[in-house]
Amino acid sequence: MEIDAVSLTAVTKSFGAVRAVDGLTLAIPRGQTVALLGPNGAGKSTTIGMLLGLIPPDSGKTAIFGIDPGQAVRQGLAGAMPQEGGLIPRVTIRELLTFIAGTYRAPLPLEQVLALALMTGLEDRRVDKLSGGQAQRVRFAMALVGDPDLIVLDEPTAALDVEARREFWNGMRTLTGRGKTVLFSTHYLDEADEQADRVVVIDRGHVVADGTSAEIKKIVALTTVSVTAVGEVAWLGDLPGVSRLEVRGDRVHLRSADPDATVMALAQAGAVRNLEVTPADLEDAFVALTAKETV
Amino acid sequence: MFGYIRLELLRTIRDGGFIIFGIASPVVMYLVLSNLALAPGDRHTGAIVTMVSMAAYGALGGAFNNGSGIAEDRAAGWLRQLRLTPLAPAQVVTGKVITGVLGVVPSIAAVLLTGVLVNHVTLSPWQWLSIVGLLWAGTIPFSLLGLGNGYALTGQTAGMANIAAFLGLSIVGGLWVPTAGFPGWLRAIAEWTPSNSYAALSWDVASGTAPGARAVVILCGWLVVFGLWALYAYRRAGRTA
């Protein structure tokens, strides 16, 4: 069996009385792009910190390509972009990236890194005189200049505007096309949906869902089937697949785990009037998943 | 690690604080103190003593400025970024210490050159060699104090603590005004300061005598104290980083 790029086993971390990560287990095979999705305070950054060997876990095991994370970083197997910081004043982009590259055994050529991070032509600018989007791309470039097999990005687009986010992900796609393993955290649901092969939803320090974004939506069964109906409508709630019924005016909204079966049953009952089927977006799935835990 | 030292030296040279406290201020003060405050007969001796004082003052400025840089690096997340590269933490610390040691060279050189070129200071070759060596090696305790403050305190606080330590040690240690003019109680304190011992080694050499054993012992004592402080602060910062 091939060794996983990332392996976290029953990892736990508390800060004082707060249990930031609570028995989290996650394995990522080589080549996957995985989104770590969760609200603020879900434990994403702590999980990433432990994975990279920056934060020692209270218990549990962490490994990158089967070895200790600190050792893996030392060997240049992993590159990372923390949520914030990492840029120093009074150096140019070229000086900074040349230095970082020099710490790795087989770094990417500078031109290639600049192209990937959409910074060609900016290399002689001072790092402290960049816009927010440019600074973020320098931080991204620092994560990938060593050509590591695993790239970990903690909320890479949190500080960016819409345009900068789009550009950032364009650069990312070139990279994942090169067979790298990528783990990124985000609280932007659309990003997880669009950019990742696999979405791992975490909340309160452990994994609450894990799958493709389509699978996640399916797990929580949030497709809505709506029809126009008058009179007695309670029987619609007993149709196959339906988990919840909601009446707004003359519209009946049925939440269904199996929208095909629900629609068939509606048709057989002759109740199809102005039929509308709305697939759940990940946001609904996410709210449902994390709300389940709320007491 | 050479890449790291190179990068840090580039940043040092471009740092306004370093230029002001480490080079410009000691050179200007040297020119003022050696040409205005002295009777004509004492000019040459005065120029030599003040040259050593101001070179020591500038070297201290460079050493403390380097320590403040650590606090800035920590606040900027740069130390964490370095932990995400193949560089080992020990290499980073060693690199920063070497940067500090190399960073005081321009300060010492600037004042000594001003002494030679402007005030026509003449000393024998062995005196020059000894003074440069003593001024250089003697900055290590101050570098350690600066680094300790940089690791123990946050950004601005560390910067202020280091400037306070730098100016305080310079003044009380008699680098600005000779301790001979101090009131008795202050002179008693001055004789126990690391800065006074540090400069005294080179004052002795400049006046043609061997460095006093007392100054060597006091400076080494402070080296141990500041070294332990830096070690403690570094370990504590490692736990909370």
UniProtKB/TrEMBL annotation, chain B:
The keyword Transmembrane applies. Its main location: membrane. GO terms for cellular component: ATP-binding cassette (ABC) transporter complex. One of its GO terms (biological process) is response to antibiotic. It comes from the Bacteria. It is found in: Membrane. Residues 8-194 form the ABC-2 type transporter transmembrane domain. InterPro entries: ABC2_TM, ABC_2_transport, T7SS_ABC-Transporter. It holds the Pfam family ABC2_membrane. Keywords: Antibiotic resistance, Membrane, Transmembrane, Transmembrane helix. The chain crosses the membrane at residues 12-33, 45-64, 97-120, 126-147, 159-177, 212-234. This is ABC transporter. It is a multi-pass membrane protein. PANTHER family: TRANSPORT PERMEASE YVFS-RELATED. One of its GO terms (molecular function) is ABC-type transporter activity.
